[in-house]
Please model this.
Amino acid sequence: MKMGKKFNLLAIVTLLVVFVFCTLAYGTKRLPDTTPQGLVKQVLDRVMEIQNDPNLQGHNNRYKRALEIKKVIVQNFDSYAMARKSIGGYWRNVSPGKRKTFSRVFADLFQDSYTRLVLNFLKKEQIDYLGEEINNGHAIVKTAIVRSNDRIMVDYYLKLQKNRWVIEDVVIDGVSIVGNYSSIFKREIARNSFDSLLNKMIIQQKAIKMKLTENKKA
Amino acid sequence: MKLLQRYLHKFLLFTTWRPWITIFVAFSISCVAIFYTVKTLDFETSQLDLISPKNRLIKLSDKLDQFKDLNPFTVVIEAPSPGRAVSYLNSLIVKLNDQKRYFKRIFYKVDWESMKKWSLLYLDREELKTLRENLSDHLDVLRDLDKSPNLENLFFLTNREMTSKMLGHFFTDFLEEDTNPGDKSKPLDLTYLINILDGMEKWLKGKRVFTSPWNSFFGSTEWGGELDSYFWTGKKKFLLAFVTPQKLGSGFTDKENSLKRLREIIRETLVSFPDVHVGVTGQEALNTDQMSVGLRDMSIASVISLVCLTILLIIFWKSARKPLLEITELLIALSWTFGLTTLFIGHLNILSMIFAPLLLGLGIDYGIHWLARYEEGVRNEERKTTRETVILTMSNIGPAILVAGFTAAMSFLPLALTNFKGLQELGIISAMGMVMTTITTLGVLPSLVLVFDSKKKKGVSNFSKSSNQVLMHLTPAKCVAILTVSLVLVVLSVSVAREVKFDLNLLQLQPEGTESVDWEMKLIRSSKRSALFAAVLAESPEEVLHKTAILKKQPTVSKVESIYSFLPEDQEAKLPLIHSLKPLLSRLPIIVPGGKDFDLARMDQILGSIRFKMLPEEENKWGSNKPLEGQMVQVRKLITRIRTIISGNNKYDAKMALLGYQERLLKDLKDKLEIIKSSINVRRPMTVNDLPKYLRDQYIGKDGEYLIRVYPKENVWEADALARFVRNLQSVDPNVIGDPVTLYVFTRAFRKACIEAAVYAVFFIFGLLLFTFRSFVNSLLAMTPLIIGTLWTIGLMWCLGVNFNLANSLFLPLIVGAGVEYGIVILNRWFQEQRNFEGLPLSTGKGIILAALTTTVGFGSLMISHHRGIYSLGLLATIGSIAVMASAIFVLPTILYVCGRKTKEKAGEIVAVEVN
Model:
């Protein structure tokens, strides 16, 4: 009986130690690799590295650059959350099937658009990092693109997701990309319907795919 | 001639029986005539007064009297911005309102408060749609601006909109393209931003000029708000105000004082507005200016002419006494003519007013010829008394002067046969004047000489010293040379005669550098809104609309204006569009005037962001909405300059200036939003009764008739354009009236009358000469200086590029009169010399030269005038009198010398035959 009691205690302590270690080990593993500002800097540096890669220069390599940039965007942006926010209250009224379709199509369109924006916008920019604010799993990284005496403020909104920071919105000069989507989508839904919006997005998605295929062939 | 000599001898005995009595009677009649003239003579100043009152056009034109203020002075204001023009006008109006003595009425705007509610109806349907769309698009900006109404926030919101556009290009263009296919490639209009930045820069530099940026913000270039209650030419280039002058005094320039006062007040007001340009034009101002310039230049020319004439006469006579006697005699003739004009005609018109200088120019010649022969008599007949010399002079030159005087009268009288009242009166008055001058030369001058020149041995002039000499000794060789040269010149003149036209172009007559003309030309060039308009009358609203529709289609018409032009078009279709703005209105903010303070440094930063987007390397980020490159450059430059100022040392002053601009900007926005709000409650279309009464009175007459003003497309100061315009309108409505029609009828009638009068004059003169000389050949010889001189004049006109025109053609009778006079005087002398000429006797020759020089000096002085019509008149009188004189002293004596030799040869042959 005494032996039995000792075993039980040891077992409990062992379990506790294992639990604590496991918990600690789990917790240590789940901490984000970098800060929000670090992530943003990584993303921007990578994008500019692609843009300035001597092997990818010229109009003929635009497609290749676009593919590389799109990979960075896919990895670091939460397109699903952006899709949901872009239609705000309507999200609740949409069937799960349509939500899925909408999110997929939105992701495609956003990634393509943002790729084009980056391709056109960022090359050899001087970017000032003006600091970050972290609050309850959300963060804002403030940056400025500087050119001679003028600057454009670009704020990145991030959230912690599965132990890593992902970008869920970019606010350029006070204008949110998600907000921009939101106002246009709302108008379209108000004027026509959600289905109309989705159809138009699908048509646009097809057009982009066709263009990509053409570029690929070229 | 012998008969004339006998009668003139009796006449002389009668007038010189008691010379003092003759002089006294002459002066008494003059005094009575002057008194009567001053008391009774009237002036008719309108062009319409020149045409017969029985004329259909005149009768129709009387109908225009029922409309108020048809021809006011037009004040034209050109300013850097419409707002600035209005500020100037408002300052001017305050001052003009205090001058009731000079100005009867001032019309410069319609009552804005009563018109405000209708203002959206004045936009066209497309503009209303754009307004609705833009209001909807900018609603967030307006509401966000309302939360913090200041420049910083306005730029923040503008920048935000721009960024949205740029982002929209990348992310949501596919939806925009679908909803607004037309906007796919529509560039973002930066006009409103440019206007704001431009205004800010000006205010920062101390120029308080405000141009509303909100028109482009709301998408309408025509929507000026309260500015639209003023009168503008197209695109608000010129602001117009209409001032009806009081008639002060009478005569040609009864409105001159009002015009002068108006210009004085304009200049005074301009002191505070150095960037504004203002002028006065309009038919009334053009008339007044033309008359003022004409009369002023005529006065200056008269003084110059009088001084030069006096000097010339004193040099020729070597004495001041004879010129004095001559001028006295001429003034008596002039006063008599004025008296007769007052008695028989009762008034002078703008054509007949020139009779006085005409009379002086021609009449002085007779005195010169008379005194020249008198001097010759004094020299040759030393033993004779003054009375005997006067009698001899009368016998020698009297008949020639009588014939020349009546011939000159005959050259004017045909004007009375024309169908042009202005010329009829001029013809009658001038003919009376020539008769009076002839009478005083033959009836009063001898008495004056007897009384004032009895010491005849003193002061013998060139004439008497050289009485036996000839002007130029003629030889057969000289005759051949003179006749050959003359003939060549005649042939050349005839060959170019076709090139000399009768130019009806009124523009060629306008005074150079006259304000009203310059501004009229400015108006025509920039807005095609001439001060001249044709008038079409209608009896009912339906007729107005019907005629307006037809007139608008005419190729020569630029604008048709009736009372209905002041009403918005297509009102029934616009009202629903205006009502559709209602849902937006509830969300429209009430902008607080004045605005709030702002952070200058923050605004500077936002301006930097806007400029960033305007950099050349940013162009491709705009996509299909990319603003026009020129606008981007403009914005960039303006922001650079503004930032330099606001980041400088004087931040406080910069802030104060911008706060001032902000106040004006927000007040303007508030006004525009109020217009939208007040327009929304309009339930019915606007009618004529909603228009201000003053406006209605201008277009709806007391007799209930409607006036349609038709403005020409071309410059109707040019004769061809005027003809096209009037003929075109007459094909639509034969009863069309107004200034262009009057001008057209007037100029055509005038040219016709001049040509008719010239033809009649030649026949009349030739008939009179035939009657006097009883010989076709002698009559033809007497007309030689006229015929050859006129041809040479035309040749000289071609050389100098001068055409006949409405002004200078009036002096053709002067040349005709002088030409015939010289011919008669020379022929008379030839007869007295037994048709035996070795050359033209010096006294006769110098008399003719002096007579021609007096004309040249007298009328040549008119060439100092800025008035191109008066200048051309002086030029024609000068070249005409010189040409006629040259033909008189060279060609006629040569012909007479040749005729004399032939007569002698024949006589010699007869004698030889008889001897043999």
Observations:
- Confidence is low (pLDDT under 50) at residues 22-30 of chain A.
